[in-house]
Amino acid sequence: MVDDVLLQYIKDAKKYPLLTAEEEIVLADAAKKGDYAAFEKLITSNLRLVIKMAKRYSKNNSVVMELIQEGNIGLIKAAKKFSKAFNVRFSSYAVWWIKQSFSRYLNSHERIIKLPVRKEFLMRQMKNEEEKYEINHGIKPSDEELSKLINESESSVMQLKNLIARDICSLDAPVQEDGNSCMYDIIACNTYNPEEEAINKEFRLQLNKCMGVLTDREKDIIKNRYGLNGINEKLSFAFLGSRYSVSAESIRQIQLKALRKLRTQKNVIRSMAVYQ
Fold it and tell me: Name one Pfam family in it (predicted).
């Protein structure tokens, strides 16, 4: 389907004749005076230029079609700005605007996290200068040398290097060779979890109903050990031991005794298992 659309577009673009240098100047001048027909002719006669350039950027016809659309935007900008004073052919002038449109499109689609266009430009420039330097000198340039080559500070060079080296990891990426676990499984989530909150609420409700079988000390220890103290903080055996002037082991024994009492209450058994 895409192939057919592209072929038809190329066929249609070839219907428009190429222009001479003189015709380009005449049409550009007329366009600036508000002649839309002249403006349109200047653009349509150069559609083949955009197609030719788009094919150099990608072999994928779907991408080529996207690039053609973006490149045509650059072509329109060039047609609006072109002037006889530039002393160049329109195609030579339009190439820059078309390339800029291609770059903006590719930059915005290559990265999951979009960067400012200037950052992308500097990253490409730095990589190109680094490759040239290595070819000419046999070694990679230092940050100081790179900063001079791209006319940026050393701190900017370091920042650009970090951006180039940064990798985006998918949450679905496997973290074990067997592929049974992924990043999503091991990264903690601190956001509100309504299911967990519902379970905790049900547990507290059932537990409070059964607290009648416990002594006041046992109630206090259970509440503080399970974070039911109003501050959702689970206190240690040692901390509670210091509060009651007994050892941490004594607090642990009191907790075990209290839990045995609670487990005789059928309503709380399942809640305790889930919460623990």
Answer: Sigma70_r4
